[in-house]
Design brief:
The chain is α/β, with parallel strands linked by helices and 244 residues long. It is built from seven helices and eleven strands. The protein has a single domain, classed as Rossmann fold, CATH 3.40.50.
C-alpha cells in the first residue's frame, strides 16, 4: 500500500471516529476499537518506535557481554524547556534498569552496587560521562555500561481525553564496551504526542494509546524498551554460568 493510500485510510478512520462521537472515555477498551488498532498496526510502513534513532558500530557483534551496569542518567536540558523536573533522570534510569532486567540473558549489576561504587568516585560531571562510565564499569566488574543524558521531560497538562498540552520526552543513551573502551552503540529518542489535527499520520500511535493523551513516563518507557531491546539484539550475549 502506497503512502498516499495510507494517508487516505488514516483520514477516513479519523473521520469515522469523529462521526461516531469522538474519542469519548472508554472507547479505547471496546472490541471494535481494539480490532481497528490491530488493523492499523498491521499495515506496512506503520511499524517501529517513532522518534527513536539508533547507531551501532560495525564491530558491535564482537562485543561479548556477560554483565552490564546502568549508570544514572544526568540532566542536559534542551533549549525548548531549559529545565527538567527534579526526578526526570531518576525516573528514566529506573525504567532502563527495569527493562534491562526484563529482557534477561545478561546479568545487570544491582543499582545498590552501582550507587555504592559511585560514592567512591567524584561527583558525576556532564563533560566527563564517558570516562566516569568506564571507571564505574571497572569498579563493578561489568563488561559494558549504559549511560546517557535527559534532554526533555515535559509532563502532560490536563487529562487522558482532554489535554491542554501534550507530554514530551527526549534522551540519549550510550553503551561503552569496557574491553575496547569504545562507545559501540548510541540511541537518541525524542517524542512529543501530537493531536490528530496536527499530524494525521500519528493515528496508529494515538490509537495504540487508547486514543488518549499519555503521560511523560508512558512515552519514555516506549523509547527505553525499544532502545534496550535493540541494544541486546546487537551484542553477543553470553550468560554467566554459575560456578565458572
Amino acid at each position: 500500500m502506497r503512502r498516499g493510500a495510507l494517508e487516505g485510510l488514516a483520514v477516513a478512520v479519523a473521520l469515522f471516529m469523529a462521526a461516531c462521537g469522538g474519542l469519548a472515555h472508554g472507547i479505547g477498551n471496546s472490541p471494535e476499537f481494539n480490532a481497528l488498532s490491530d488493523t492499523i498496526h498491521a499495515l506496512p510502513g506503520l511499524h517501529g518506535t517513532p522518534g527513536l534513532e539508533i547507531h551501532a558500530v560495525r564491530s558491535i557483534k564482537t562485543v561479548i557481554v556477560h554483565k552490564i551496569a546502568v549508570m544514572p542518567l544526568v540532566d542536559q536540558p534542551d533549549q525548548t524547556d531549559k529545565s527538567l523536573p527534579a526526578d526526570a533522570a531518576q525516573s528514566i534510569t529506573a525504567a532502563i534498569y527495569a527493562r534491562a532486567n526484563e529482557v534477561g540473558g545478561w546479568e545487570v549489576v544491582p543499582q545498590d552496587d552501582v550507587d555504592a561504587a559511585l560514592q567512591q568516585m567524584p561527583p558525576v560531571r556532564l563533560n566527563q560521562l564517558y570516562d566516569e562510565a568506564l571507571t564505574l564499569g571497572r569498579k563493578v566488574a561489568a563488561d559494558g555500561v549504559i549511560y546517557g543524558t535527559v534532554h526533555r521531560y515535559k509532563e502532560r497538562v490536563g487529562f487522558d481525553y482532554a489535554a491542554q498540552s501534550p507530554a514530551a520526552v527526549a534522551f540519549t543513551l550510550n553503551f561503552v564496551d569496557e574491553k575496547s573502551k569504545q562507545v559501540v552503540w548510541t540511541a537518541k529518542f525524542a517524542r512529543e504526542q501530537k493531536a490528530l489535527s496536527q499530524n494525521i499520520l500519528d493515528l496508529p500511535n494515538f490509537v495504540s494509546h487508547g486514543a488518549r493523551w499519555v503521560r511523560a513516563h508512558d512515552i519514555a518507557v516506549e523509547g527505553i524498551n525499544a532502545a534496550i531491546d535493540n541494544l541486546q539484539s546487537k551484542l553477543t550475549i553470553e550468560p554467566i554460568v554459575e560456578g565458572k
